[in-house]
Amino acid sequence: PYQLSLHVRHPSVDPEQISRELGLEATESIRAGEPRQSRSGVAATAVHGETYWAAVLDPMGWSGPATVAQRMTRTTGSESRVKTGSAVTQQFLSALLPQEAKVLRARFGLEEGDVMPPGSLGWGIILVCYCMAVRHGQFLAQLREQGGSLTLLAAVEPEALAGLRITPQMGRQLHDLGLTVRIEVPNNREFNPDLN
Questions:
Q1: pTM of this prediction?
Q2: pLDDT digits (tens, 9 = 90+) for 78-100
Q3: 170 near 129, Cβ under 8 Å?
Q4: Which helix (H) or strand (E) segment is 183 a member of?
């Protein structure tokens, strides 16, 4: 019921470098200095003033520790990629050793038996933040120091917001990463926040 994507804006970095450093294929990218497409069809003289890069994130495929991914492969007997979102996160959490789960819970301020269920948007955000901090922290800090910005976009169905809670520890992790989280709910006439 949700999809996470990472969006990077930067004054000059090559989008290919972002893809290489993060190990992700861009779904959309524009390099600073490239000519803009002209709406009128006449040759464009303007250029893009900044680099823009975006990629969809699979919380397990991108965030999961290699040891967990290997355990999941052994239990499922498949090398194939799994779906994005809640099923992946639940599969990831069930493959965690108790000590690994304990480390993640402590780092993000979650109690054992917390109301945020495995597979939820909250856990998806936690997995992405953890991976960004541990595996890509230096590169992302360099981008920010050079004037770049990072946004984690969560496109969600209303039910994906159930139990979402941002703890002070999670807020600190987001702050330390310089990561803005933007949540978008589709325009749905049946969804009425006053009734839900």
A1: 0.74
A2: 433 333 444 555 555 555 556 66
A3: yes
A4: strand 179-184
The structure tokens listed for 156 are: 């969600």
From residue 195, alpha-carbon distances to 70, 120, 162, 190, 191 in Å are: 44, 21, 14, 10, 8
Element spanning 6, H or E:
strand 2-10
Which runs of consecutive H residues, i.e. helices, occur in the chain?
15-22, 59-63, 66-76, 86-95, 98-107, 121-145, 168-177
Residues with Cβ within 8 Å of residue 82, at least 6 apart in sequence: 58, 60, 61, 76, 88, 91
Task: Give the SS3 label for residue 133.
Answer: helix
Query: At 130, is the secondary structure helix, strand, or coil?
Result: helix
User: Which of 66, 67, 59 is closest to 88 using CA atoms?
Assistant: 59
Q: Which residues in 26-45 are b (16+ Cβ under 10 Å) and which e?
A: beebbbbeeeeeeeeeeeee
Which residues are bridge partners to 30 per DSSP? Answer: 52
Q: Which of 18, 59, 27 is nearest to 150 (CA)?
A: 18
Sheet of 2-10, strands arranged across: 28-30, 51-57, 2-10, 149-156, 179-184
**141-156 pLDDT, tens digit each:** 999 999 999 999 999 8
